[in-house]
Design brief:
Blueprint lengths: L1 H5 L33 H13 L1 E6 L5 H9 L4 E8 L5 E7 L2 H11 L15 E3 L28 H9 L4 H12 L3 H18 L7 E5 L13 E6 L26 H16 L3 E7 L6 E6 L4 E7 L2 H16 L3 H14 L13 H13 L11 H6 L8 E2 L3 E2 L21 H13 L6 E2 L8 E2 L24 H19 L13 H4 L2 H9 L25 H17 L10 H13 L3
Parallel strand pairs: 1-4, 6-9
Antiparallel strand pairs: 1-3, 2-3, 5-6, 7-8, 8-9, 10-11, 12-13
Helix pairs in contact: 2-7, 5-6, 6-10, 10-11, 13-14
Bound molecules: guanosine-5'-triphosphate and magnesium ion (MG).
The site of guanosine-5'-triphosphate has 17 residues, from helix 9 and helix 11.
GO biological process, one term: RNA 3'-end processing
Keywords: Magnesium, Metal-binding, Transferase
Protein name: Poly(A) RNA polymerase, mitochondrial
Length: 592
Amino acid sequence: MSVIFRTFKFNLHRKSVNTPYCKCFIFRNASGSPKKFITFDEVIAQRRAEARRSLVVQVNSESSFDELYGYCSKYSIVNDVHHYQNSNNEHYMLIEFGSEDSKREVLKACSAHQKSTDIMPVQSPFLWFRAASGTKEKFSNTKKSLAVKHGNSKVDEDMLFKELLNCESVSDQLLLLYNKTKLNDMDIRLRFMVARQLEAIFSSIYANVAIKPFGSSVNGFGKMGCDLDLVLTNTVAPEMMEASRRLVFQEKICEGGRSPWQRHMELVATLLELRAPGVARVTRILNARVPIVKYSHEMTDLDCDLCYNNTSGVYMSELLWLLGTLDYRVQPLTFAVRMWARACSLTSPHPGRWITNFPLTLMVLFFLQQKRHDGIILPSLNNLIKMAGKDDIRIAEENLNCTFLRDLNKLPEDSYGQSNDSLQTLLFQFFEFYAQFDFQDRAVSLNEGVAIRKPNSLPLYIVNPLEQVLNVSRNVSFEECERLKMEVRNAAWHLESLLDGKKTDDWGILGLLEKQTTRNLKKLLKVGNNHRLVSVKDLFVAETPEVNTKSDRISKTEQSIKDSLDSKTRNLKFKNTQVAKQVYRIRRNKLL
Ligand code: GTP
Ligand code: MG
């Protein structure tokens, strides 16, 4: 079966610089030649520096650009202005200044607080642009235009559906899906701005405070709209602890119960509520092993999880990022698997006894470590540890050793990216691999790169690569593990059925991305005796004139879907009211 799949070859075009976080950054070796890989630390440092020289300003609309640009560039150098709109239809411009000093100059010259007794003034990188009082200043027509308009708008699912339908191969579908749904530059900038906001607010209370994004916001597997995991650290710089320095700050000894940081996180939560503009719905989860404060950031539409000192989480993100950038197929494949798992409800936005995106990602990476007929795609973690040098030593909290090779340029070329298998082949092989995996006795270990004996009888065992005594899927129940086994078999079967060459309306990845409910409904609505499944789109019979071509029909139907969702009063005809209700429920639940 897999042999036939290997015939779907895909052109390998290896990338010279790892993306998507660093398109705009060019790194060079001492010799001056461009580096093939940049490090995670370099990317994060660039993004943090970018955030430090940026401001987010609420404006009236995108046409406020000329005035805002004219006003700010009077005081300082503006690199670029990026526009976005949040779900409350508020417009914002992210202004990146030439330097942090340029930003400071602007703030010194023209920032202001509101004149109200109800407000306790606070300074953060989030501001608003007040209408000019008196006569409006004329700004000469600048040649500059917005770097991006509506920078964070979500992908139109129906358009994406159509584009996926029209792809030539499943490999093309996977690349398209990845490129359309991954975090874009605007979204990444905003995540670092939200982190910067907290840093600015907390730095008056905690010395050397740093707030860093981790998890899918930076590990290369983040989808538009994914949550923002943040870690607060307050490590004191080594020079600030030198015994030769004689003026030592008077400080309070950390006091508290099980963890003094539980109390500090309580304070942090209160500060978020009282002092951080845009923050809403703060929830404290302080009794967990890693205390977390959850909140929503309304100006950026981000759901945030803030924890303290979880540096192993950051190193874990670094490890995932490194593996994801080693080969261009890793991220698209992982995206597809994560979306498939969401579509068949193996994962859920809520915590429970099911698998989550993080262990699922480890499963994909582990699969790519397996030896194939023409070499391996990803190296084992033990290989990366063996090659680590002095600069790679990292010790996280509780003395956890997180040392592994950081500079992938040092990795021998024949130790990764060796196979020519297409994404289509890999996706099929992924499902086939786990359909045959011995979950009963074996554990997934990225450290070894091969399955190892399970140390206990938990249904699913995925070794935590940085803390090998732990199982990152310990929460997964027997039933959920059984469902996982069943769904990988179903997916393999679906992809195998493509071999007959027919392109139905759920061909390739489409058949894997639709929710079970949608699939069941489609089965229910099989029409005539031609065994064609009715597309959800076909269920809408809008009052439109007869259309001739298939693409006309699709775009007209899409328009009717949009209209129907925009206006509840619109009179759409369904086959019956039960179908109408079902369709609305599906469209509401549809997740891409
Ligand atoms: P999504 O938020 O679902 O997009 O994926 P995510 O990778 O961000 O996962 P999540 O928000 O659940 O966790 C954030 C990060 O915390 C992960 O990327 C890991 O680095 C780390 N993490 C999550 N679960 C575990 C775990 O069980 N053990 C350890 N050591 N780290 C974990
Ligand atoms: Mg996350």
